[in-house]
Amino acid sequence: MNKLYVLLTVIVCGAAIIIGNLHWNHKISAKAEKTVAEKKVEQVSPVEEETSSEKKAIDVTALSANLPKEVQEKIKNAVNTKKPLQFVIYGSDSTATDKEAWPELFKKQLTASYGEGIFNITVLSEGTKTSREVVDEKSYEQVSNAKPDIILYEPPMLKDNESVIGIENTLKNIETMMDAWKEVNEDVTIFIQPSNPLYNANFYPKQVNQLKEYTETNDIVYLNHWENWPELDDEKMEDYLADMGEQPSLPNQSGHKVWADYLTKYFIGK
Hints:
- The chain is of the alpha/beta class.
- The chain has helices at 2-43, 46-63, 69-81, 102-114, 131-137, 141-145, 157-162, 167-184, 203-217, 253-267, and strands spanning 85-91, 119-125, 150-154, 189-192, 221-222.
- Helix 4 (102-114) runs parallel beside helix 10 (253-267).
């Protein structure tokens, strides 16, 4: 009888130990699963996702604050649809295509600020052609072929001045080009900017001022990057221009930088 009692006791104790161990393991496992689940919930928290989206939208709004309302809307739409805007930079040899020129410097800054996928930037240069040659050859159609949403245009003011085209003819040629671009996309946004300034120039600045007046009359945004350069009669201007002998000077590395800096500040809301 005593042996049976001892055996039963051992069996009961063993069962109690096994059941207690199973219960404890189950409790620990359940707690661990709960912790993991809570972490997963934290990672996909709708509040955090909403906050992230709001931050992104606010950033885009702040970056585009200087731009016309229509361009701000285009940028927001590009963000939402993930369809980049076709941005064409077009001009003379002042709008160079090499890596050290202002278009490339500006492009890098724009991409660094807005990120990839907002702007698809194409740089097109007519070299030493006058506006008359561009219109006669219809080479401006290369801009139309890019189907741009935004155009940053630098008319060949230096070349037209050198060739005595006459500002009235220059403005007519500009209008011909813009009309052609609007036929492809009536909602295209066109910015106009002057060619680079020259040291101690006389007649050329007057023509550039007439270009500015033309843009104001026709509600075109004029980007006056000359504000970033030294004064026209300041000898320091020569530090920003390449020495080209008798030919009109083009920007050197410093000139390209001040030009790009002006555009960057305008396009990223500084």
